[in-house]
Amino acid sequence: MAYILAMIGGYLLGCSNMAYYLAILNHADLRGGGSGNLGASNATVLLGWRAGALTALHDIGKAFLAVLLLKRLFPQAEHIGVVAGVACVLGHIFPFYLKFKGGKGFASYLGMTLALNWKLAAVVILAVVLVTVITDYIVWGTVTTILSVPAYMGVTKGWIPALILGIATLVILYKHRENFPRMLNGTELGLRSALRGENKLKQK
Q: What is the pLDDT of residues 50-84, one digit of tens each?
């Protein structure tokens, strides 16, 4: 029962979408421009860095809250934090009230990692920054995170949490499936261009 409640509670927290709220306030259609996703990166591209930062903080915070809240409610359940965190990530990606079309889940994945192991999260965030700066694409930072976190958890905590985290990893990789060919053909919007407000990417 604890794990069922963790899945439900985590998912519902994940469904809260700041990018969607800001799009309404700004009379913007995030799904009609940029990458077409309701996440922090697309909010940055189409609404500016302030909107992107607020969205990122919200998406990180809700996953952080989901993990800590469910761990506090059910301290006896060994893997409750991982279950709640992954459910929150999936709620962000597949919100029921937005026809299951939300963001790509990276910020929420970071928030989950922060709540599960803040030292690991610090290393991951540093790696993300370095990889993104070097490559100019946050996608590579995303890939670094979602592969390294389950691997680390598998080594330190066992195969069960690694397998649960692997669900989110596979879904996030699938959500980024269109980014990889765009990077190869030069149509993917880089971080530096996004910060300069150069929205060169118009297709979904």
A: 998 999 999 999 999 999 999 999 999 999 999 99
Establish if 204 belongs to a structural domain.
no
Residue 21 belongs to domain spanning: 2-195
Q: What angle do CA 131, 81, 9 make, to 5 degrees?
A: 110
User: Could you tell me where the DSSP H helices lie in 29-158?
Assistant: 40-47, 49-73, 80-93, 106-116, 118-135, 138-157
d(CA 44, CA 42): 5
Total domains present in the chain: 1
- Average pLDDT, integer, range 1-11: 94
Q: Which amino acid is at 129?
A: V
25-52 per-residue burial string, b: 16 or more CB within 10 A, e: under 16: eeebebbebbbbbbbbbbbbbbbeeebb
List Cα–Cα distances, 101 to 24, 30, 75, 108, 160, in angstroms.
Answer: 16, 11, 32, 15, 28
To the question of pTM greater than 0.85 for the whole model, the response is yes
d(CA 14, CA 37): 15
Residue 122 inside a domain? The answer is yes
> Does 148 fall in a domain?
yes
User: What's the pLDDT tens digit per position in 127-160?
Assistant: 988 988 887 777 888 898 999 999 999 999 999 9
The verdict on residue 203 lying in a domain is no
